[in-house]
Amino acid sequence: MPESVLRPAAEVLFREELDALAAADTHPKPRGFRLSPRMIRTFILGSGEAKLPREGGEGEIAVTQKFFGDDALVERAIVTLASPRALLLVGEPGTAKSMLSELLAAAATGTSLLTVQGSAATTEDQIKYTWNYALLLAKGPVREALVPSPLFAAMREGRIARFEELTRCPVEVQDSLVGILSDKVLRVPELEGEDGILFAREGFNLIATANARDRGVNEMSAALRRRFNFESVRPIRDPFVEMALVEREVQKQLAAAGASVPVPRDAVELVVTTFQELRSGRSREGVHLDRPEAPLSTAEAIATLHAAALHAHYYGTGRLGAEEVASHLAGAATLDAAEDTAKLERYVETVVRDRAARHGGPWGALLEAWRKIGRER
Questions:
Q1: Would you say 164 and 115 are in contact if contact means Cβ atoms under 8 Å apart?
Q2: How far apart are CA 161 and CA 158, in angstroms?
Q3: What is the pLDDT of residue 94?
Q4: How far apart are CA 266 and CA 269, in angstroms?
Q5: 28-67 confidence digits (pLDDT tens)
Q6: Where is the signal peptide, in residue numbers (predicted)?
């Protein structure tokens, strides 16, 4: 993979781990799977202190934890993919639904790239197949003129397809999946004989994600809902787990960007605590809060701190301070609705001000920086 690639696929980024897991895998595998359910779980949740021999026997490798959340959810998701039913991951934005689907597909059948991106503009052709119109005009409807969709390729090769943001598609487009998920067959009426019918090979299944919160979401038909096992992916509740994850990911992103900015633990705690309290509607002191419309997820916390650190790198002193945190915190918490600004201001002038008076430190610096930003506005 060239160094200029911004985000390699999971099967490329974690190739050494996947190779080591495959070499050590002695557990039963579902037909068509590259790894057993036990090893897929280890790939996603990590091997802890245990290490595996690298492929070829050159040293050992620890399998890192990639998904932080409900371990039982991961197990249920893997079992679903080994069954005839498809998997639907539902949750608020930023809860790692897409990342989990990518990791599952990469570990189970070797690729995470057979993906359909759902939107209001998605058509049935993009889900099933389309045509090379130059060949179609020259030769008519022949097999070589057909352009397979990612779902078509997954059925043909016995792999897992991914469907991002399924409920952003119109209902009639969503329902084009009903027959495929029921019969595991895709028909091409324009072609004759064996070319006109595609039977899914062993290993094929579908992972879809759906957003339960944003505008622009369409209801699923009852017929399609019955073809899926639903799993709800929820935000991380443990603040210490979330802080460790945010700190790790921010440092990783800064290293990739070539920005040597220290990320103080205090800054991580400020952002994570603020996001957790605002999305729960309650401070740790028991103060009731107005919940913003913006999705204050772990992914948003990572993006906020990363942006604040880059601000310090390019425009500041090279050290992440309260001013950068306050500035980008305001942008994240008021992302979706103008009235969220007032909700954030009430949080600062009640919870943050009280903590600043009692404890000072980073909360006092955040309060001062917030008020300075307000005066400059």
A1: yes
A2: 9
A3: 86
A4: 5
A5: 999 999 999 999 999 999 998 889 998 777 789 999 999 9
A6: none
Q: How far apart are CA 33 and CA 109, in angstroms?
A: 5
Instruction: Give the pLDDT mean for 233-257.
Output: 92
Q: Of all helices (H) and strands (E), which one includes residue 110?
A: none
Residue 225 and residue 232: Cα distance in Å, rounded?
Answer: 14
Please name the residues in contact with 357: beta carbons below 8 A apart, sequence gap of 6 or more. none
Q: Give the DSSP letter of residue 95.
A: S
Look up residue 288 and give its DSSP letter. Answer: B
Contact 144, 95 (CB under 8 A): no
Pairing of strands 160-164, 115-117: parallel
What length does the chain have? 377
As a whole number of angstroms, the distance between CA 194 and CA 188 comes to 10
DSSP element (H, E) containing 88: strand 86-91
pLDDT in tens, 258-298: 998 999 999 999 999 999 999 899 999 999 998 888 778 89
**How far is Cα of residue 152 from the mean position of the Cα atoms in its chain?**
23
* Closest listed residue to residue 217, CA positions, set 162, 171, 151, 161: 171
Distance CA 83, CA 78 (A): 9
CB atoms under 10 Å from CB of 182, counted, come to: 13
